[in-house]
Design goal:
alpha/beta; about 15% strand; binds erythose-4-phosphate; about 55% helix; globular
Amino acid sequence: MKIFLDTANVGEIKEGVALGVVDGVTTNPSLIAKEKRPFRPLIEEICSIVPGDVSLEVVATDFEGMVKEGEELAQVATNAVVKCPLTKDGLKAVKYLSGKGIRVNQTLCFSPTQALLSAKAGAFYISPFLGRLDDIAHVGMDLIRDICEIYRVQGYRTQVLAASIRNPLHVVDAAKAGAHVATMPFAVLEQLMKHPLTDIGLKKFLDDWAKLGEKI
Ligand code: E4P
């Protein structure tokens, strides 16, 4: 499973990429707004830092507007992926942009039926938002499992990008469900590598080594 960072913060992205485990980035208008930086230079910088795909979201809500913005965003860099919302116009835009060879991440997916239509329209990624479903007492992971099963059984090549991830267990369960990608905040990525027994174990090793007084 690929790991993407769900952020537009250049510092976090550089740190994640330096770790060697970050495959891509997803942004959205809220994440971009948090950075308070001019849009175009920000997204160009992000695309230049990241080795893999960077999702850049349209803000138009009509078909023509999404296509126009999508075509512009696709020009930003070769690793740019256009993000369109899962609306009627969004589906049409996915069909059109995919037909032009532009890769699209269809976002704000909350049901298996939406995901089925998105795959039919030719989306490169589908982004089911599991945390936001958990927030309203629906089991977000069930949606990831359903979509993975439907795509596998039906032979769709659209990649399942588990989004709105809030904790390490979401990452584990998305991996078990067969999601192709999990996108997460930097704080969740940091949690993935932490274990108290690692810290305790390392301290014990180093204390014992210090008592020995040897050098490597
Ligand atoms: C996905 O691409 C979205 O940017 C993101 O995962 C939304 O997460 P949130 O529900 O934590 O805002």
